[in-house]
Amino acid sequence: MKKKMLKGLIVAIAFCHSTRLLAQTDSIVYTNASSLYISGKLFNTTNPYQRIDTAKYPTLPAPVKRLLSHSAGLAICFSSNSTSISAKWCINKPLTYSNMTTINSQGLNLYVQNKGKWQFAGVAKPDNKKCAQAVIVENMAKGEKKFMLYLPTYNELSSLEIGVAPGSIIKSTANVFKKRIAVYGSSVTQGASASRSGLAYPAMLSRHFGYDFINIGMSGSAKMEPAVVAMVNDVEADAYLLDCIPNASVQQIKDRTLNMVVAIQKAHPGKPIILLNSISREQGFVDVKMGAKVLAQNKAVDSIANILLTRHTRDFYFIDVKDFFGDDHEASTDYAHPNDLGNYRFVQKLQPIIAAIFKKYF
Questions:
Q1: Residue 26: its pLDDT value, please?
Q2: What CATH number belongs to 180-358?
Q3: pLDDT tens-digit series, residues 98-139
Q4: From 267's CA, which of 86, 114, 135, 347 has a CA 20 to 30 Å away?
Q5: How would you label 156-175 residue by residue, b for 16+ Cβ within 10 Å and e otherwise?
Q6: How many Cα atoms sit within 13 Å of 340 on the Cβ side?
Q7: Cα separation of 50 and 156, whole Å?
Q8: Burial 208-217 (b: 16+ CB within 10 A, else e)
């Protein structure tokens, strides 16, 4: 008898939940997000949610092509007077990663502008299926507000619709960022292992500065190949931030770093080029082999940077970031990738240094 009652209760709860979802769906008006302004774009693309058209760059390494189809760093910019914001979206493949949340890799992260500053407003949680829908935030105060919806960092988005309450307006906003900063880097740049996409360090820098830090992060694949350098050179930006040393071997650092800096300088004269060395990998403090690897990488890039600085290379800057995660060993999710604390500390250390550089140019 008790089992039958419990079963009936479960069915009733499920029915009420599904009815609520249907009611929410029926009372939401959706807009195709591709009709709204998308920040963080490297170029205009056929698929609006990809960072590049891979067909345009046939010589890029296959892993780079795959990773640049991910929507890391892209955000939909819009305004609405709706008291709720919802979303329906589809991804290419519901992959999960052991070192990050599915909210970061597959979900959405909404920010709202409050008194001129961007503030967290909610997340859309995926359900490990290709398509999902969610109410991101509801019961907001009345009045028109500006929003920014960050897209998944580690997945290819195939479609996205943003929902508002019936009778509400939703419209594209002009570019909310004043300058474009190209950030070429590793998995840390792409967004591993932030808890949500808005906490990847390029996204945090964008909100702090009011500049568009364009995410050219490519997990495990930032190795400065000539084809990649050519692609980065095609990105029109006001400054170039290179955080690619963690992925490159010592020999690749020696062979390619100088060439990349010179190539960017030639393609974009007068634009600041900021090179970072490798952050210390947390496990390297106890794993002597890993610790030695990072030391060797940084020794190699330090040598290249010294050559460039000794030559008084115009518009070149070098920043030592190896200790930017702090010294309490609490800033990583796994052996290398920063958690939210790590990303926050990295931004707090990096921001004033690059602000002083930017001040010379704009």
A1: 62
A2: 3.40.50.1110
A3: 999 999 999 999 999 999 999 999 999 999 899 999 999 999
A4: 347
A5: bbeebbbbbbeebebeebee
A6: 7
A7: 7
A8: bbebbbbbbb
* Residue boundaries of the structural domains of the chain: 29-172, 180-358
333 vs 309: CA distance, rounded Å: 35
Helix (H) or strand (E) holding 341: helix 340-358
202-256 pLDDT tens trace: 999 999 999 999 999 999 999 999 999 999 999 999 999 999 999 999 999 999 9
pTM: 0.92
C-alpha pair distances (Å), 163 with each of 104, 135, 171: 20, 8, 12
Distance CA 317, CA 87 (A): 41
Half-sphere exposure of residue 174, counting CA atoms within 13 Å on the CB side? 1
Q: Can you point out the beta strands (E) in 51-141?
A: 75-80, 85-91, 108-114, 117-124, 131-137
Which H helix or E strand runs over 288?
helix 288-310
Residue-wise over 77-95: b if at least 16 C-beta within 10 A, else e?
A: bbbbbbbbbbbbbebeebe
Give the strand pairing for 180-185 and 212-217: parallel
Matching CATH number, 29-172, of 1.10.10.10, 2.60.120.260, 3.40.50.720, 1.10.101.10? 2.60.120.260
